[in-house]
Fold these 3 entries.
Entry 1:
Amino acid sequence: MPLPKIPSKPATILLAKDYPKATGPRPAPALAAVADIAPEPAPTPKKAATVKAVPPAKKPVVAKTPAPVKSKAVAAVLKAAPAVLQAAADAVEAKGKPSPRGKVTPIINEAPHPAKHKANEVAIKSSTSRHADQTGTTKMFVLDTNVLMHDPSSLFRFEEHDVYLPMMTLEELDNHKKGMTEVARNARQVSRTLDALVSNTDDDAIENGIPLSKLGNKDAKGRLYFQTRMQTADLPQGLPVGKADNQILAVVRSLEAEQAGRAIVLVSKDINMRIKARALGLPAEDYFNDHVLEDTDLLYSGIVQLPDDFWTKHGKDLESWQENKNGQSATFYRVTGPFVPSLLVNQFVFLEPKNGEAPFYGQVKQINGKTAVMQTLRDFSHNKNNVWGVTARNREQNFALNLLMNPECDFVTLLGQAGTGKTLLALAAGLAQVLETKLYNEIIVTRVTVPVGEDIGFLPGTEEEKMSPWMGAFDDNLEVLNKSDSDGGEWGRAATQDLIRSRIKIKSLNFMRGRTFVNKFLIIDEAQNLTPKQVKTLVTRAGPGTKIICLGNIAQIDTPYLTEGSSGLTYVVDRFKGWSHSGHVTLARGERSRLADHASEVL
């Protein structure tokens, strides 16, 4: 089956009304669902997928594979014991209606997926977990090792539910605690947390569970259980007994047998582990707590289009005045109306009338109830306002340059596909404010060193020389920005390049902890490959007078266990929205070349 084509060049920014609502019904995960042997309760209304009746005029949904007819008898058999299920399957086959592989597999007609739906981002709970949510009973989550190493605070993220740690999980934590990597640091932090929880407790307390709120985490109302005795469970023959994953699966099956009626759910970041558990009939889920958004279509874009009747509804008590800020004259408008509460501070607004009137581009500066103050923007698409020879080619690039050239904005995030101009705009703004206005001392460039293909091995030289192969994108953009006047000749161009190179420092992320940057222009490239904890480490390096720019494309994540919803770039965009000293713009159109634009469409 060919892979679906990923859209890489959206035509325009989505309107606010076009974004899917978070409270609406979720689309169904698949067209065909295999019924479990155990009775599966109906999903909760929050997660349920509503299936609308198909009108007679429309073409009905036709299943591609042969499916048995789901009668009342078959529906009753599905709730019976496995022996009855097998007998029913044999009876159906005897009547001339063969079931695939000898099992009764009803086909459920679901509503088609919307165009913007991403199946791998929707948090689908297991049937056991949904049933516990319906009945209001607490669950017991069995944690795999990779969950603890991914998020050391995951022990306290399960609210009123209990947490169970198999002995093999502790063994794997011990194996990964050595070294200076992020995984080793997380393993050591989990070990220290467990030691603090276990200290000053008797053996009976460990057997009955340790309160997770013991260390002051009031949100964690459940208890922590350890595997205190050998638990045996029959797994299918042929599975290696000594493998850690199989031992954890055996613990889950044993817990289900011991605590009948209790919801036992395995939580793992390992996809194959979850598939293996579901194949054995055990409930398994991904760790959802690190996901900022379930669907990245809901990610804050930083831009909103005003309705056509905005000025008629909000212009009754309109006030306007002019101010000089940062050497530039700007017009301010104070508007009041029903559309204002949906806006955020530093969000860009635009209105492009279709009747030939002049468009309006502004930025929200203050919000107080239903009253907002908007400021007009500087037009960086005009050549007189060029930034180091670079002008904005579209509306979103103009918004981005307004953020990058604003000294009051300390943190900027730029998101967009390849070729939208993220690196070029950031580098041009940095050179203009370091060499022309001297607002910052130097430019510091860093990025995550995650290779796309096979690693080429160790690199020789100093830190900057080791990082230079990863900085090919900045070298390409510097060649564009180094085009000086032809009057200077070769000597003039060489002197300009040496001056620019002396003000740009390339640093590695591995040595950022403990540093403080004062009056620096810090550019973090490929920020989508950072975890939320790594992003926090970098952003907290900022000292007085420092500006941080995060660039990235969440469709190109190379770090294992990171998704679009749990990326550090998504994390900071969601957390910083609405702060008066930060801004975000999602760049929409590619401006690299006609060849690159065509290739992104057809390849």
Entry 2:
Amino acid sequence: MNDRRTTLRNTAFSSIGIYAEYFLGMVASIVIARHLGPGHYGVYSMFIWFAAIGIVVTNSGITTGVIKFIAEFRGNGNEAMIRPLLTYMRRVQAWHMVLVVGLAGAGLALAGHRWANTPNLVEFLLLAAAVAMRAPYMFNIAVTRGFEAFDATARVSMVAAPLNLALVVGAVLLKAPMFWFLVVYTTSSAIFLGISWWQARRLVARVPPAVPMANELSQRIRRHLRIVSVTIVVSFLITSDVEIVFLNTFASSAEAGYFKVAYQLATGMMLLVPGVFAAVLLPMMSKALSRGRDQAAQKFVAVTTYLVMLSAPVVIFGVCFASPIIDLLYGSRYGAAAPVFAVAILASAIGTANQGATSLLVSADRQHTILVMVVAFGAIKLTLDALLIRQFALQGAMVAILTEAVSSSTAYVLIGIRVSGARLDGRRLAAVALAAAGAALLALPVLLLRMPVLLTVLLGGVVVLGSYGVLTLWLPCWSRGDIAQLQELHARFARNWPRPLHRLLLRAGERASARAERTA
């Protein structure tokens, strides 16, 4: 199998696994949220967040190291080092897990009574068991990715995710209280662990017998863990919905529930649009940088522009139709989550715009710069959360996530400009903003039609996507090469139908060619 076919095959299986697990996980979370209501769902979400941070700390630097070093050993023909690597990493993971569970238990015993909505002993044991199974599950997934066995990753998702959803639906049909959803979470953790263990074991069985680990390799692994661990943990605090902990503490569990559904839906919608594109940014940027600084600068400008273009219609749709979207998915009890969803999807889009800059910094070996920025903005976000949520509750959380997104993305992009020597294409970005504003104005009247919620959301999506697409073609949003590619795709898959779109693409191509000649 040639490299191109292998890449396409891996991309397909990876996408199947990611999107299946995300979609079914989102359906499960919607079912739980509608069943429990905002108050109980806010507490449940905080418990799951505790488990999530436990998993991240347990695996901090380990899973990325497993992927990196397995791929490296396979590339240089040193596969005999894979077994000692896995043995060492599992030992480190075990010590991390003991530390995490021990510190969490001690913290609960010493200060749990001072905090509202803390887990009791049985709930704590369930969460600890879930961490003890989900962390090795993520380790096994890292092993499959290191072997580039994305079909194995997809099998895990395609089997375990539906079983998890079935358990959730069963608990809802039995009208189970919140405690039993923690039981479901722990049970599904065992399912994910078992299936992933089988897939990873099958791959490792092909590896040659182990050889002693060299001191140089041990030092590289420890250095990797030191640098990456802090970055991963603090990055999780920045990108995760840590605000639900502060809301449960300083406001109410219901407001935590509103924030949870809004933030999860917003980040998920944004992930689905640039997700596939973002997956290829790092190798793309590394390749461009290897060819010279000018190539990297051009790629950085193009990537940033395309990320903004891809994110804009999602933001317009989410902001304009926040209320009907929340009502359709979660019900009228979650109506207060609509403005949070509008702010969260804007913050997610702003955060998406800096992915080109972060890929450039990694490619340029600026990991220490990224580490400093991650720590700084992590401290800023936690400080804003503590101050604003204490004073303004849910509104404070909205201000905190938007402020952090704007400040961190601006900083990353400015540093990317400095490193590459590039200048962003202000004209194209302004045209994208104008197209987005025009699409919003055309979509807002749909809300005045007072149709059923489902029809409102569907029609709104069609109007936003259609009008935004047309406006980007009328305005200077696309380059001459982009238009040519669109024309080729339209001719190949739609045989230039409908004809108005064909004529629109022709005129857009003519205008793009004229602009290119004027600037040449």
Entry 3:
Amino acid sequence: MPSSPSLATGPAPAPPPRTVRDRRADLIVVLVALALAVWVTSGLWRDPNVRTITVNSSDQALFEWLLAFGGHAVTHWDNPLFTYLINVPDGVNLAVNTTITVYAVVFAPLTYLIGPPATFLVILTLNLLATALVWYWLLSRHLVRSRLAAGVGALFIAYSPGMVSHANAHLNWTAGWLVPLLIWRLFALRRAGHWLRDGLILGVLVAVAFSIAAEGLFFTALALGVFVAIWALHPANRVEARAVLPNFLRGLGVTAVVAGVLLSYPLWLHFAGPQRFHGTGFDPVIHSEDIAAFAAFPRRSLAGEAGLGTSLAPNPTEENSFFGIPLLVLTVICFVVLWRRADPHRRATLWALGALALIFTVLSFGPVAKVDGRRTDLPMPFDLVGQLPVVNAALPARLALVVAPVIGLVLAYTVDQLRAAPPRYRPTELAWVLGFAAALVPLLPTPLLTDEREPIPRFITSGTWRDYVSPDGVLTPVPLTVDIYPDGQRWQAYALSHRQGEFAIPGGFFLGPGGPDGRGRIGPVPRTLSALMDQAGRTGLVPIVTDGTIREVQSDLRHWRIETVVLADEVHGAKFEVDEAALLRTGTALFGEPQRVDDVWLWRIPPADR
């Protein structure tokens, strides 16, 4: 007869202390989060200075420019929130754009050391990693007992379809680590006797969040306001809410004062400064969430790679929901299970979370409902609230981003409850494991699509441009710089980050005035020269040039004070291939025969024409 296990092997070893197990769990979450962050951005890590995000190279170029300009502005004591280096002669109000000033300042040494493209990639990767880790910290230290539950919730939120979608070059929206910090510090205001310190900390955090992701801060504030109101009005919480209300309001008052002081100049520029505008340059109907998108799978996921992805988003960077039917079903089941076993206080929290998700889901549908790509005539609540100040500058589709943290919390609460429950039948445990796997595995992210982009000309990198542009003078590439032709800002970013000096450009990728009904628009209002060059580069057809055309172009040159026009051998087009030969023939027809300088064609504009 074989010996019993206890006699053959001795007493079973004692499990490691809880602190050791928790530290192991923390380390595993850190490693998984880091692996996912590098995995998603791996296409860029192959060569950060050469590769670009395929579906959004224009935004990547913009953020690279913002990093270079912000660092340059701070080190040269220039205004980081308004510049005349682009959109000559009017300049650009960066306070109504996405400035990421804090990132530009903090990472300025790195930008000067390794260049804007590599710094952009470092920040993008750190954003994803930090979002996972800060959510994990909030969940594991404040909201759930199980490290596994915290890991599931945090990793889902950080690598949810919306976050991976915005990883296509959006340094502002991928800064999701700000949200759990704002939640933590907001609820810290309930503590008695600490309202001054807690309000001060939250005020500074609000100012930082505004400088990195103002639209994200606005959505977070709306979501927290809705949650707190619903939570406090629930019968189970009214007594507690009344007790903490005075301290909470005092802390909020301090927050408002501190944030107001720190943001007084940016807010003045935003709402009353030069080159401001009202509303947005984007159509809220186009940039709204399709109802069917909530049940669809994203393109950059295992399900998408298997051919289950869709094109229901306005563009690949705005897959803000795309949770898939399995996850929606699992979330509903988890919510019901939690509700049935919850005490009144937990039910109040679930009620507030459910209402929050429903409200922001409906608002994300925009002014009118769309179903599976077809626009209906059914008006939606956003048609009313979208007319309000500040709200009219937001894209309704992005309101769906609020839903992902709600789902992550529900998943974390469910795993936490399952871990704390007494042992169950193995089939039940297996069913839960399979349910989570079926819902989450298809959403595992795949790497962002990347391509090689056209190099910055040696004419710029060698500093030769300084021989053809006076100090603070105006140089323009052709086509002129806009979102789909970002070369001008890429060249500027290189010159600024390599301490070569400054040159200004007409146009640029920015939001400014000039849209219909006083709203904003992307880039400057087109003029003759920019329209002619766009036509040539886009279609390959050289426009007919008359004496009248020449006079209009000369007027544009004087308006922009252009000294030098440059055509690179390879022009980067963010949406299509650019016909450089047609641009050369068009430039020759407008300005005469060009010079060959280094690796560019160059036209010097006589003083009489500028």
